[in-house]
Amino acid sequence: MTTDKSSVSVNADSSSFAASANTSSPVPNSSSGNQDQYASSAEGVSDTSNSKNAASVSVDGSEDAESKTATTDASGKSAAKAPVEHKVPIIKRKLNGYVGFANLPKQWHRKSIRRGFSFNLMVVGAKGLGKSTLINALFNKQLYKVDSAPKFSYRDPNEPVPVTIETVSSEIEENNVKLNLTVIDCPGFGENIDNTEVSWKPIVDEIDRRFDEYLEEETKVNRSTVVDNRVHALLYFIEPTGHALKPLDIEFMKQVHDKVNLIPVIARSDTLTEKEVESSKQMILEDIKNQGIRLFTPPIYENDDDETVASTKGISEKIPFAVVGSTNYIQTSDGRTVRGRSYPWGIIEVDNEEHCDFVKLRQLLIRNFMEELKETTGNSLYERYRSEKLEKLGIKQDDSVFKEFDPVLKQEEEKQLHEAKLNNMEAQMRSIFQQKVSREEKKLQETEADLFSKHKEMREKLLKQIKLLEEKKKDLQKAPVKTVSPKGYSSPQPNGQKQRKGFLR
């Protein structure tokens, strides 16, 4: 009877202890308010299960001890043994000290979604290479109206065509992400007979002007509203001739490669065969390497996985991109609807990597490396232009701006600077004076040499004349004297007799 009662009481106690263990699960500390909710819930579940296991172990141990004492009392034996104590395993959980800066990417994501993104793209190329169609296909939006039958205007070949700058801005939204896109077109490029500075100089001036505007906004006192209108990327369209670059292509690339992220593309590559495309790419890359032209190449980071590295290398290997642009949807023979161009010999799919490099260009320009393009423009290209611009204006880096101000040292520095300036001016004046003296001496030496040469020439002429006169004199002395007869014939006189004058002979 005692054993039954003890077992009943133990079961009751175990159920109540288990219930208390369920209700006494560890609660996260209120001070860790920045801790992630998912992590805190997981810790609470694990701690609750551990407390339940500990409770079950302690209940089982107490039950065995009470049953043993109960049987000993029932048998009436005097040798009572001490109850065996079972140690309850205690699991100590150490908190990791979650700070919360792991949520910074989420915060940056929210901030970027709220502010939106901006991208400035410049397209340069001759007329009729499909620039507008390619831009519409890249961003899947009709930014330019493309005529199915373009109009050709005949102009005077002697009249130069000016290169103008046209800007188209639009706000594109995709999955609640807004992009302020600005496309800068340069109509008139390459349409003149003489394309020396007429074609590329307005484009270079436009890039510099945008840098100057950003520099002016950056140096203002109030910089809260600085608009980034710098050119982040430049798509240069190369004619699909199947040969190397033209002199205009090389000269333009050399003028802009250190100011923008240059990305060359072979336009209308569907007019070339696969072998022609490959040979044209090789010749273009050789010309670019020989001329020292820098192109934008996608970077590879240390923490990139193998798939990302392979994708980046695949994009780099396709430069220059052989692209085909189209916004028309065509149904293929197998029932698929694709963007492309239909020809009698087949269909060119724009989004098919086996047909053209449109997908690789879109990955480089938009999907994978748009922020790298903007970062390279701001940290490398613009900083180089800014440093050169400030140095030309005479502004140099002054590291002593935030040092303590000492009037005596400042006066000494100014005195030294003034003396150095005077010495520099004196040296410049001395060098100018020496240059003038040397110039005058050189003029005098040249005049003296000229006079000497003239004198020598006149002396030689006089000597020649004297020699001729002496020769004539000798000839006259040697010649015999002739007399005239009544009939008009001259008869020589005997030697030693002179002819008498007068009528008496």
UniProtKB/TrEMBL annotation:
The keyword Amino-acid biosynthesis does not apply. Residues 1-83, 474-505 are annotated as: Disordered. Residues 1-25 have a biased composition (Low complexity). GO terms for molecular function: GTP binding. Belongs to the TRAFAC class TrmE-Era-EngA-EngB-Septin-like GTPase superfamily. Septin GTPase family. PANTHER family: SEPTIN. This is DEBR0S3_02608g1_1.
